[in-house]
Amino acid sequence: DHGASAKFLVWKRSILPCLTRSRAAGRGYWCSTRGRPFTYAELARCQGLDSNWVNACLEMGVPCNAIGAMLGNTMSKNVLQRLLPRALWAAGICHIMPKDLW
User: Fold this and answer.
1) In terms of pTM, does the model score above 0.70?
2) What is the pLDDT of residues 2-25, one digit of tens each?
3) Which of 28, 63, 69, 99 has its CA 20 to 30 A from that of 44?
4) Distance (Å, rounded) from C-alpha 88 to C-alpha 4?
């Protein structure tokens, strides 16, 4: 875990830990296969977003650390695809239980 104190220093193989706002804002996730921190475009892809989203934010003048913070606050796209239809059905907004795409 790039930039963590000794108390919180951990590493995992083939797993990206849960993105947090503060860690993503500071590019604190290390890509061991590349020998460098993850780029914001790579973090966006880990959340299921198109990496062009990062470019669009930069063109609008959003600071890089704010982009990282937004990525750390997002839920993964695949989680939302499963959660939202069930939540809408449970709330009575959707009257037919949606088919689970997964």
Assistant:
1) yes
2) 667 778 777 777 777 788 898 888
3) 99
4) 39
